[in-house]
Amino acid sequence: MALSVSCSSLSSPKIFPHFLSSRSFPLSLPQPISFLFLQTPLKKFHYHPPRALREWQEYEEAVKRKDLASALSFLISIDKNNSDNPVEGNGSLSTDSTRSRLGELGFVGGSVRDWEVLDTCLNADDMRLVGIAYEFLKDKGFLPSFGRFSSLVLEGTRNVTPTVLKSSTGLEASKFSPKKWGLSGSSSVVLAAFLGGLSYLLQQGIDVRPQLAIILGLAFTDSIFLGGTCLAQFSSYWPPYRRRILVHEAGHVLVAYLMGCPIRGVILDPIVAMQMGIQGQAGTQFWDDKMNNEMAEGQLSASTFDRYCMVLFAGIAAEALVYGEAEGGENDENLFRSICVLLQPPLSVAQMSNQARWSVLQSYNLLKWHRHAHRAAVKAMESGGSLSVVIRKIEEGMSSSG
């Protein structure tokens, strides 16, 4: 089954045509030194780092600059040089092998450095280049769990009623609905405490209404012109609130990773999110090449749409799994609706509700089966780890849970 989609507002990403450069990296050996030092004076010479070491230093500089094209080009060229220098009969690399020289310098394998290429993805303008980086690491054996459950969307019942959702998760369907501020448990307590404190101050003859009017005016301005970024910035310093954000975003990251969708980056700072044009207080950017190609052709397959919806609702599912209900995810729902109205014919309200319940149930089960990996991702983000660290922790969690 294929769904038509309106793609007038979509544009194909740019391609970097020259990132797949291939170069060799010979080592320059220092000037030979005579051992007849009693007869021949020792000549002074200046040490020049071997070219392989300089190239790795250039790679690290590319990582610092978040230059994905340069960093990935170097890794691909090193991998090509390694494959072009076969292993000799004695089991060692040939003398011309770059890997052999790197081994002498303590860079055998380069595993940590290979992982770091993921940290350059956030600044990449070409999302296809991000996908190539993940496929490169997967082919090298670093990402065995990437795309491991990409066919999961083909399993399970399609008709997920609120009763089915409750029987499968033990939670009412309303627990998976994002809460408006003032309606959730924590915000209602804060609101009640605020009103009680205001009433007490007024009874004591302390009139704070002018200051309150200024505060409310600033909050209104923030919500209209900045999307609530300033308030979100202050709220993010409250540990329970920040941890809930981490749980939510880790759900997006894990499900996207297991479904084979390359992750460009995770934004946890509301101001940075606003500067990057991300709606909400935080965001996870991922890429689905198949969905992009299908939408460019005006046809969206059901399996591709299912996979996208699973990643989209994974944050809500993660909150429900950890806390018993979801508070965030309003922007995820809005994005889901915006995709649904592009379909031809558009999904009805009943069809959208069923699709949302099916997607959140699939993501909930996937996260429940891999709790260790989800907790590892939350912990890595909580400690300020980069994307490469988060992905490594996910792989460690997946291997420990079998």
| β-strand number | 5
Low-pLDDT stretches are 6-48, 86-110, 181-185, 225-229
Q: Report the average pLDDT across residues.
A: 74
Shape: globular
Helix count equals 18
Our measurement of the CA-to-CA distance between the termini, rounded to an integer number of angstroms, reads 34 Å
Major sheet: order of its strands? 4-1-5
Order of helices and strands: EHHHHHHHHHHEHEHEHHHEHHH
Q: What's the main sheet like?
A: 3 strands, antiparallel
Known CATH architecture of the largest domain: Up-down Bundle
Q: What is the domain total for the residues?
A: 3
Q: According to CATH, what is the topology of the largest domain?
A: Methane Monooxygenase Hydroxylase, Chain G, domain 1
Rg, Cα atoms, Å? 27 Å
Beta-strand proportion = under 5%
Structural class by SSE content:
mainly alpha
CATH superfamily of the largest domain: Peptidase M41
What is the CATH domain class of the largest domain?
Mainly Alpha
Helix content: 40-55%
InterPro entries: Peptidase_M41-like
GO molecular function, one term: ATP-dependent peptidase activity
Description:
InterPro entries: Peptidase_M41-like (IPR037219). GO terms for molecular function: ATP binding; ATP-dependent peptidase activity; metalloendopeptidase activity. The chain has about 400 residues and is mainly alpha-helical. It folds into 3 domains: about 15-125, no CATH class; about 150-180 and about 235-400, Up-down Bundle (Methane Monooxygenase Hydroxylase, Chain G, domain 1); about 185-225. Helix content is about 55%, strand content about 5%. It has helices spanning about 50-65, 70-85, 100-105, 110-115, 125-140, 160-170, 185-205, 210-225, 230-235, 240-260, 270-275, 290-295, 300-310, 315-325, 330-340, 350-370, 370-380, 385-400; strands spanning about 1-5, 265, 285, 300, 345. Strands 4-1-5 form a 3-stranded antiparallel beta sheet. Strands 2-3 form a two-stranded antiparallel ribbon. The longest helix has 21 residues, at about 350-370. The radius of gyration is 27 Å and the shape is globular.
